[in-house]
Predict the 3D structure of the following.
Amino acid sequence: MKLFVVIGMHRSGHHGVLNWICEQHGCITHLNNVYLSKDHKSFETPRPDICITRYGDNPYDLLVNLETFDLRRWHNQGWDESDAIRRADEVQVILVLRRFRNWLASTAMHPGNRCLKGTVRQDVIEDWCVRRFNPYRSHMAAALGKSPIGDLLVIRFDHWFAFPEYRKELAKQLGVPFTDAGLNTVPRFAAGSTFDKRKYDGKAQEMKVLERWKKAQGTEPYEKLMKRDPELDRLSEEYFSAWLERYRSHDPDASTTANLPASE
């Protein structure tokens, strides 16, 4: 059995990516938001009735995802030594990283935070979001070559969404056939997109996920949070910009590239 472990922040787009992986694969089971059992011998999910999805008639591989997981806890919590992971024939750890300002926009503006409805004090919402900066920081560090868990495949969500050539390259690295099946699906988890819910299910490429920061710009929650850690935004912009030209060269006129870092 091959085990895919997908790690991503809440609102990072990782559910879209993992659904795409599963659709390319075709015979795999997905366990959503897993944690280790007390004896470390198996994965558990908070809601087995809705957190298990099977792709194909006889799934033989497994994909699990860890949400808002600080990579520095990988060893401390015993993930690397757990039977749940060690019994797999092959393990591939995948990190889905979204551009910081887009991730923050989707996080700060998510209806679940209720900050726009005024039903929760804004300082409480800010603290909730800022606590997620540390996991994001560990993801950013790993993308820059300082991974505390060894080898992992970094998937840059914004580029994955924009560039077919990048997705084709990723499929090869993942060892799955490239069909782009699942690309236009909006996963049901957490009610879909922060801004669009599941309105664009079946046509996800029409969503403006690369410019979420523009929708949030000027709102009090977003602007306050951006000021809390400008260094994370700087690192993210530099990282995504450094990779951009390679993929833009394959599709220089693509409209989806208009709001990626190097063109702003």
